# Entry
Amino acid sequence: MDPLETPGRALVFTPHADDAEGGCGGTLSKWIKAGTEVFLVLATDGRAGTSDAAVASEELVDTREREQADAARVMGVKEVVNLRIHDGGLEDDAILRGHLVEAIRRFKPDVVLTTEPYHRLNHAHRDHRTIGIVAQDACYPYARDIYHFPEQIEAGLEAHKVGAILFWGSEDPSVFCDITDNMETKIEALKQHKSQFLGRDPGEGSRNRAKQNGEQVGAEYAEIFRQVSFRR
# Structure
């Protein structure tokens, strides 16, 4: 498994608030400390993210956006964009694809990070599968080609070629990031999502997963990804 290089710019597409911190929070924190500009797009509004019927869905929307903003500040993310699509409502369609293409053309990342859409052994949330598929298509060929979403080009956004996409949560990882020095920042970012952990400490589970990843690559703690590179 190969180590990841530090990019100049990175863009994260996360289906739900807290997914990015769990999947790549250590990597983002490490890159940001090294000078990477990181931008994050939160796709859903989080209205379904509770089992407590006493919590109003609209109230939860505001809470989860605020928690995502707090977590982003902990890591040092430069900007968060909220698409506010209904939780559980992501579709592989031109609407979502257009949003992601617009973000790519606006932020011009070297690398995109998102959830692994393809699983053989375990089930994944439908929003996770959908955002992963649409993100890869948005990177290539849609953001690259001027005649896809030409209204964006006419509005002043330029076509952009992404170098690679990194999928967290993959059963077939190919690259890794040693996050030993950034593990506590990852956990602190996760702790901002109080509505999801309800008093539970996310630290133990996060450390255990990162330690298992690290054992595969000779690090104390690591995050691992499946990388797909695109023709430039």
About this structure: Residues 25 and 186 are 5 Å apart (CA to CA). The beta strands are 2-3, 9-14, 37-44, 79-85, 111-115, 164-168, 175-178, 222-229. The chain has eight helices and eight strands. Helices lie at 19-33, 57-75, 94-107, 126-142, 150-154, 183-191, 194-197, 203-217.
